[in-house]
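Researcher: Here's a chain I'd like modeled. Treat it as a single chain, no partners, no ligands.
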Amino acid sequence: MIITKGQILDIESKLKVWRDERHVAQSKQGAGLKGNFFEEVAELYRAKTNVERVDAFCDMCVFVLNAYNVSSYITEIPLDNLALTNFEEQKMHDTIEDMLLSFMNNAFEKVIQLAFSCIYMLGFNPYLCMLETIKEISSRTGKYDESIDKFIKDKGVYSIDELHNILEADTNLKHYEVLELENIYKVSVKYHNEKEAVLEYAKWYGASYSLCRI
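Model: Modeled as a single isolated chain. C-alpha cells:
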C-alpha cells in the first residue's frame, strides 16, 4: 500500500478549507504546535484500544499539517513493507520514538510518514482515517484563541445520549427539555433557583475509524 502525493495534497487542501472557514492562519499554527502535539502524545499513551491510538496519531498529523505543508518534501509514503494488525509492540514503540525525535528536529515530513506507518501497523488505512478526522473537526465550530495558540471548540456533543448524560449530571438543573434541530440541540433548562435559560449544543460528527480497517 502507498499513500500517494495526490492523497497528501488532498489532505492538505481539506485542512486549508477548515482553516479558511475558521479564519485560522497557517503562519500562526507553529507557535502552539509543540504543546498541542504533546497533548496528543499523552492521549496516545493513555489509549486503551487501537481506535483510540489511531485517533491520537491522526490528531498529531492534523496539528503538524495545519502548521506546515509537508507535501513539498514527500512524493509518496510506501507502507507495504510494514506488518499489519499483529504488529510487534517494540516496533511500535521504536517508531513512536523515531517520530518524537523527528518532531524535535523539525523534520515534520518524517513525523507524518512515521505516524501513517503506525496507523497502518495497527491495521487501518491512514488516508481514510485522516478523511474521517477532518470530517470530525469540520463538524465543530469555535474560535482560535491566540493567547493559548489553540482552537477552542464551541459546546457540543457527539450524540443525544451524550447530551442527556451531561444534563443529568448537572446537579443544578431542576428540569430540562431538548429540541433537536439540524445542526444543534437547543435545551430549555430550569435551575433549582428557578432561573431559566436556553443552552445550545452543536452536533459533532464522530470519526468512524472502524470503517477504515484494511
